[in-house]
Write a structure and sequence with these properties.
- By secondary structure, the chain is an alpha/beta fold.
- The protein has helices at residues 19-25, 47-60, 74-83, 134-143, 149-152, 177-185, 190-193, 209-212, 214-227, and strands at residues 2-6, 29-32, 66-70, 90-94, 115-116, 147-148, 168-172, 198-202.
- The protein has one domain (2-227): Rossmann fold, CATH 3.40.50.
- It is built from 9 helices and 8 strands.
- A 6-stranded parallel sheet has the order 2-1-3-4-7-8, with helices on both faces.
- Strand 3 (66-70), helix 3 (74-83) and strand 4 form a beta-alpha-beta unit.
- Helix 1 packs across helix 9 and helix 2 packs across helix 3 (74-83).
Length: 228
């Protein structure tokens, strides 16, 4: 199965470097995506352009692909499922939940000179980054790509209720499946509350398992592909 991999904020397709061979060894075609505004110098890239790139990757797949989205990009994966509800086999959300219609995509940190730079590790102290050694932290920070303002502050637009029929797997790294279920029940993730098929799987890692636990993450993604 084609598995389309979408990194979260500040990440491009190279973030999946260690996951890709593990997935291919398990019999899948891993396709890490690098989107407009991710290292191409286009600070004017928009959320709509990034969505169009994901949809184009879905359309280019020979069969229904599995979408995998990490962190803030869980919303981008959900937008793609909304755009192509009949063309994706399922959606895996790693360490995040999709925003609802009308919300800002990822307006979380300061915008400077038209982009949202990586803010350093301070905001991610604790379970998010506890499994990252200093070498990994330095590498991730050095490779971090500032997010174009029109991506971070883009407005989420959802139009097709058939997205709720797309099977979803929530991978829970720095939080537990029990916490995820509680947040959804409390109304913190209204889009997932309406989804018809949601599985929860635990992963003993921090927020960036593609760096700290790539083999285990690949195994979970392959299992999700088998279910799809």
């Amino acid at each position: 199965m084609d598995i389309l991999l979408i990194g979260g904020l500040w990440l491009d397709g190279t973030a999946w470097h260690a996951v890709t061979p593990a997935l291919e060894a398990l019999g899948h075609r891993a396709r890490p995506l690098t989107l407009p505004g991710q290292g191409d110098g286009r600070t004017s890239a928009t959320l709509d352009e990034q969505l169009a790139a994901v949809v184009a990757a879905v359309d280019a797949s020979a069969e229904k692909p599995l979408l995998v989205a990490h962190s803030a990009a869980c919303t981008l994966g959900w937008l793609a499922a909304d755009a192509r509800p009949d063309a994706v086999a399922g959606l895996v959300l790693i360490g995040g939940f999709p925003h609802a219609d009308g919300q800002a995509y990822a307006d979380f940190f300061e915008i400077r000179d038209g982009v949202m730079p990586f803010p350093g590790w301070g905001p991610f102290a604790g379970p998010d980054s506890a499994d990252l050694d200093e070498e990994l932290r330095s590498r991730i920070a050095a490779d971090a790509i500032p997010v174009p303002e029109q991506v971070a502050r883009g407005t989420v637009r959802l139009t097709d209720p058939r997205r709720y029929g797309v099977p979803v797997t929530v991978v829970c790294p720095e939080f537990t499946p029990e916490q995820a279920r509680a947040w959804i029940a409390a109304g913190d993730a209204p889009e997932l509350a309406r989804a018809e098929h949601v599985d929860f799987v635990d992963l003993d890692s921090g927020h960036w398992p593609m760096f700290s636990a790539p083999a285990e993450l690949a195994r979970l993604l392959a299992a999700a592909a088998s279910r799809a």
